[in-house]
Amino acid sequence: MPTRSAAPRAATSQTGRERDWDGVRLHVVTGKGGTGKTTVAAALALALACDGRRVLLVEVEDRQGIAQLFDVPPLGYDERRIASAGSGGEVRGLAVEPKAALLEYLQLFYKLGRAGGLLERFGAVDFATTIAPGVRDVLLTGKVYEAVRRRADGGPVYDAVVLDAPPTGRITRFLGVNTEVAGLARVGPIKNQADSITTLLQSPQTAVHVVTLLEEMPVQETVDGVAALREAGLPVGGVVVNMVREPVLPARRLGTAAKGRLDADEVAEGLAAAGLPHGPDDVAALLAEAQEHAQRVALQKAERAEVDALGRPVYELPAVPGSLDLGTLYRLADLLRDQGMA
Ligand SMILES: Nc1ncnc2c1ncn2[C@@H]1O[C@H](COP(=O)(O)OP(=O)(O)O)[C@@H](O)[C@H]1O
Ligand SMILES: [Mg+2]
Q: What is the pLDDT of residues 84-96, one digit of tens each?
């Protein structure tokens, strides 16, 4: 079972269940590429949407990963419903696209109306959104901020927003881009907007969760990423250890197996009893596999200790066999809820 070494904002919901992030409105999910950011962000969104909540799941990397995962047509700007959850809860999806975000931004601040289209014809929109990477991030974070803050009928439109964010190597720069803007624009609406975004991102309403595998590189990126986030004053959330594989050997055998000292005769007997080939080659192959497995388990334990040393709540998700379908995603969401992440 996962140990939760710290649960800073632990709260008890109406159902009496403990939830670690009740005060959080914006969940940012980062991690090394390929560790399962999109999968975990989606599972977290589903988990948060239980109990009749409305959750927005946002992607900013132009990959349509969410649409693929939920098996729906490509997402756009219309915040379409992509999944339902318990008690009338729902997840909506949004793929933020820098161009659309810029036109919306210009409209908002400069009431440009049709002049936006004119800018687009002159290539100014392309310039701002693809050639100037900082501008791109300002627009993307600006849209996320808008979704978190949006209100209707006297309350927030979304109970929570989950961001499938850029990887650990870029996350601090991405979330910190507005402090650079505020430094450039000393006064005026752009500075105010940048300051508001920074205030939200550095507040207890935001949590930056990191997804990792129990392997050397992803754990190292997690440790470095957490340090960088802390230095930038960004609130570090939990660590999600993804694709956990349970040891197939009993604990008392692992040490012997790792040293390659399992009893060959015993293994041969076991194979024979199971009606499997049990010649010397078969036994040797199995012993080698057992050794490799035991060594990997030992390594995972060491990596897990490094994760625990970060002093953040840790959640675990198993490696699920086969392709990841929607049913599996709901199961992962349940596991996150069981562990108090949502
Ligand atoms: N818990 C899991 N068990 C099995 N496969 C997983 C799990 N989490 C993610 N995957 C698979 O790993 C791959 C990478 O996951 P993805 O969420 O796209 O990562 P990222 O967004 O970090 O690049 C995908 O094929 C996904 O289906
Ligand atoms: Mg992804």
A: 998 999 999 999 9
Average pLDDT estimate for 50-72: 94
Top mutation candidate among 30, 38, 39, 66 for ligand 1, by most atoms within 8 Å of CB: 39
Mean predicted confidence (pLDDT) in 198-204: 97
**What is the CA(158)–ligand 2 centre distance, in A?**
22
| SS3 labels along 255-284 | HHHHCCCCCHHHHHHHHHHCCCCCCHHHHH
Mean pLDDT over the full length of the chain: 90
Cα(216) to ligand 1 centroid in Å equals: 18
pTM (2 decimals)?
Answer: 0.89
Which segment of 122-126, 142-146, 165-169 scores lowest on mean pLDDT? Answer: 122-126
Which residues fall within 8 angstroms of residue 27, CB to CB, at 6 or more apart? 21, 41, 44, 48, 160, 161, 162, 163, 206, 207, 209, 237
* Chain position carrying tokens 């055998």: 253
Pick from 169, 312, 132: which is nearest to 237 by CA? 312
Planar angle of CA 39, 43, 46, nearest 5 degrees = 145
Beta-bridge mates of residue 9: 21
Residue 188, number of CB atoms within 10 A of its CB: 9
Q: Which atom of ligand 1 is nearest to the CA of 332?
A: 1
Closest residue (by CA) to atom 19 of ligand 1?
A: 36
CA 99 to chain centre: 24
Q: Where are the alpha helices (DSSP H) in 131-215?
A: 133-149, 168-184, 189-201
CA distances from 329 to 46, 192, 334 (A): 8, 39, 9
Nearest alpha carbon, ligand 1 atom 11: 36
Confidence band for 8, pLDDT divided at 50, 70 and 90: very low
Helix (H, G, I), strand (E, B) or coil at 21: strand
Query: What is the enclosing helix (H) or strand (E) of 74?
Result: none
